[in-house]
Amino acid sequence: MARPDASQERHARDAQGAAGVSRAWWPWARRGLTLLFFATVGVLLVRFGSQVQWHAVWATVLSKPVPTLAWAAALAAFSHALVASYDLIGRRATGHALSIPNVLSVAWVAYVFNLNLGALVGGVGFRFRLYTRLGLDKATIAQVYGWSVLTNWLGYLVLIGGVLLLSPDTIPAKWHPGQPATATLGGLLVLVALAYLLGCGFATRRSWQWRGHGFTLPSGRIALTQLLMSVLNWLAIAAVIGVLLGDSIAFTDVLGALLLAAVAGAISHVPAGLGVLEAVFIALLGDAMPTNDILAALLTYRAIYYLAPLAVGLVALATMESRRRKKNAAPTPAPLPAARPHNRRVRAGVTGTGS
To answer: pTM for the full model?
Structure first.
């Protein structure tokens, strides 16, 4: 074989060097952009917070009646139970053998940390950590998480599409793209969800492969269950906020604000949607209620829906870790002694070896 000449070798070394430089600077650039983004968000939050009368906000928070707080807490508990149950759909779809209590506990802990720390840490990180320790392989865990995400956003598509179709005034005039555009977008979102339901119910081809990843449509009954659970969950979350806001704002307006804030939070990747939720609600509902009252309701909502479950989730996680350590520290039982062969002859393939 002919050896490459010196110029070819030099070009190859230059290309490898350029690739190495590219690989070296890109992680730093990405970190820098991420820090710049969070610094910008922090500046905006500080500027926003400096304009709020926080003493009035806290006074409003402390004045919330106990029955109102209890009703909001009950709705929040219902929502958390629903979201934890999403992983049962993944259990059915993948056919893994973990018990229902194990699935619910892992899914709920992951959801709590997802709310407070973001999807990458909570929804993904804690699921993989906890499910792996229970014996699931990574491919199955990824499928379970995928089914949970699909279930969550299926109901979202139907609700946000319905809001845009039936209540387009939820969007402020300065953001409004116009009635035809709003109706078209709402209809398309509903049609996407409807196409999924019809595909699950009537499609003849049930499985697809793309880049080594497979997807199999569930039955129409499971798809309807996904839709029902997701819609109920989003309605329950909106009801928590609606109860805390009181009767001065229509529930459809609260629901629309929540749905828009959810997608804004998902796009921004800010953990817990900190500041995003408040900004969207104030922008959408600020004309119908004083800013201090809206902030008080949202702070109470965060305490009930985010922080209180996080405290319980930390205890649950510590309990899981303690049980795992005790299990790993337990001595392995000695193997049973091998049975001595009987003197009498036995039938081959049934109770022993035959001659």
So the answer is: 0.75
